[in-house]
Amino acid sequence: MPAGKLYLVSTPIGNLGDITLRALETLKAVDYVASEDTRRTGLLLKHFEIKKPQIAFHEHNEQRVIGRIVRLLHEGKSIAVVTSAGTPSISDPGFVALWEAVTEGIEVTAIPGATALIPALVLSGMPVYSFTFRGFPPHKSGKRRKFLDMDKDSPHTLIYYESPYRLRKFLTEALDVFGNRHGAVCKELTKLYERVTRGRLSQLLDDLPETPKGEYVIVIAGAETE
């Protein structure tokens, strides 16, 4: 029996209108949907009137579940991998499935679409011709400072994801490491309360609410652009 096919499907990061026609066609056609959050994906599928069995596939169980996914692919089943929002493998589960499928000789394709880092970069006002995406920094202060220090002399625009619970600490340490560079804090992109705040890092810290809420992308100017 010929092997099935694995699809890495990008889904909206907030606004459901950002789903692509190809993503919808793929979700309708596959046999299974491997979901980071089955409840959230269930709402997405229901909104677009798609009924598919889901396989819970997230960072806490992916090593255990990947065997089942590979077996289904070898049985000729097609599977779409989706995360809670955005593009699989970009600071989200997906890489393990991709690597295992490639290793097993199974065909893989990506259905492009929404991801938070690109609109954040474009809206930031920072140079877009050369950038480095760094994802989520380490949670602990010492490791986070070392993580930031690696890019202190980088000429590229820097892009980070950060939790609202650690946003103030992150910006404080970024100010210490990088100096008072230009930056942008992008909140809730594509959603009702989308907001982009631009300015020096010290200004961005001053503009933070006492208790930040939502999802954030931080963009910081590279060393040579200051």
TrEMBL record:
GO cellular component: cytoplasm
Residue ranges constituting the Tetrapyrrole methylase domain according to the UniProt record: 5-204
Catalytic activity annotation: cytidine(1402) in 16S rRNA + S-adenosyl-L-methionine = 2'-O-methylcytidine(1402) in 16S rRNA + S-adenosyl-L-homocysteine + H(+)
Protein name per UniProt: Ribosomal RNA small subunit methyltransferase I
Keyword set includes S-adenosyl-L-methionine: yes
EC number of this enzyme: 2.1.1.198
Biological function: Catalyzes the 2'-O-methylation of the ribose of cytidine 1402 (C1402) in 16S rRNA.
GO MF term (any one): rRNA (cytosine-2'-O-)-methyltransferase activity
Gene name in the database record: rsmI
Alphabetic keyword roster: Cytoplasm, Methyltransferase, rRNA processing, S-adenosyl-L-methionine, Transferase
Protein family: Belongs to the methyltransferase superfamily. RsmI family.
Lineage of the organism: Bacteria, Pseudomonadati, Planctomycetota, Phycisphaerae, Sedimentisphaerales
Cellular localization per UniProt: Cytoplasm
